[in-house]
Design brief:
Length: about 210
């Protein structure tokens, strides 16, 4: 008797069944995560924090918050740093967490104390701490907040930078590359902008 081989149609059916089974059993291999929504959510977080800082400035003689706030009392609550101080203006702690850091498993979404590591994924421009708003000549060019917390920083409620770490520029896994080859920044006038990692950002007051 002659041995019958597979016909083309039989081979196609078998391959189709294998593909369907793979999609059902291993869906993560066939679903590409769109990073754009995470970037948008991150921008929304920075916008909310910016509005909180604006409210703080209005209530504090038109001055930006200090980095260290442990000796400052607002609404009968003593705060540790700029981040938990801004939380008093009805901003949730989750707002201080970048969604990319959570989805990539870099951090969990458990509540943190202001003195804990990973309290915030966003740094405050230390050069602005305690200065009067009117001293900024070009608020639309002055970075107020940016993406940080590369895993080595304490990133507690006092997390601030006066310059961007030089090592971040050459590290594709640094905060500068967090969202599609760039990162989000909030400026002193309140607007939020995504910028490419290659852009020469400066935290100097404009």
């Amino acid at each position: 008797m002659r041995r019958r081989g597979f016909t083309i149609w039989q081979a196609v059916v078998i391959l189709a069944l294998v593909a369907i089974a793979a999609i059902i059993l291993f869906p993560a291999l066939f679903v590409r995560v769109n990073p754009a929504p995470r970037r948008s959510t991150c921008q929304s977080h920075l916008k909310q924090i910016s509005l909180g800082i604006v409210q703080y400035i209005q209530d504090s003689d038109n001055k930006f918050p200090l980095t260290y706030m442990n000796d400052v009392t607002i609404s009968t609550e003593t705060t540790f740093g700029w981040a938990d101080t801004i939380q008093l203006f009805k901003i949730s702690q989750e707002t201080f967490w970048c969604p990319t850091q959570i989805e990539n498993g870099v951090r969990n979404n458990q509540e943190k104390k202001p003195s804990d590591r990973d309290y915030t994924d966003y740094f405050f421009n230390r050069r602005l701490a305690g200065i009067e708003e009117k001293k900024i000549k070009s608020s639309s060019l002055t970075i107020m907040l940016g993406e940080g917390n590369d895993g080595t920083d304490a990133a507690n409620a006092r997390y601030s930078l006066s310059t961007l770490p030089a090592a971040w520029k050459s590290d594709k896994f640094s905060p500068l590359y967090r969202h599609i080859g760039g990162s989000n920044y909030a400026f002193a006038d309140g607007h939020v902008k995504w910028m490419k990692a290659e852009t020469n950002q400066s935290l100097a007051i404009q």
